Amino acid sequence: MQGMLRSLWQYRHFVVSSIRNELISRFARSKLGGLWMMINPLAQVAIYALILSNVLAAKLPGIESQYAYAIYLMAGLLAWTLFNELVTRCLTLFIEQGNLMKKMSFPRITLPTIVVGSCVLNNVLLFVAMLGIFALLGHQFSSVMIWLIPLTLITVMLGLSVGLILGVMNVFMRDIGQGVPIVLQMMFWFTPIVYPANIIPESYRYLLNLNPVYHITNAYQQVLVYNEAPSLGAVILILAIALLLMLLSLFMFRRASGEMVDVL
Amino acid sequence: MSLLSVQNIGKSFSSYRSELHRFARWFGISAKPSEEHWVLRNVNFEIQPGEAVGIIGQNGAGKSTLLKMITGTLQPTEGRVEINGRIAAILELGMGFDPELTGRQNVFQAAGLMGFSSKKIQKVMPDIEAFAEIGEYFDEPVRTYSSGMQMRVAFGVATAYRPEILIIDEALSVGDSYFQHKSFGRIRKFQELGTTLLIVSHDPGAVKSMCNRAILLDNGMVIKEGKPEEIMDYYNALMAKKEETKIVQKVLGDRVETVSGTGELTFSNIQLYNENEELINTVRVGEAVEIHCEVVANRSVNSLVFGCGITDRLGLMMFGTNTLHTKQILHNVKKGDIFLYKISFLANLGVGSYAVHCSLLEDGSHIEKNFEWRDGALVFDVVNVDKKTFVGCMWNEMNFSVEKTKG
Question: Is B73 in Cβ contact with A261 (below 8 Å)?
Answer without folding.
Answer: yes
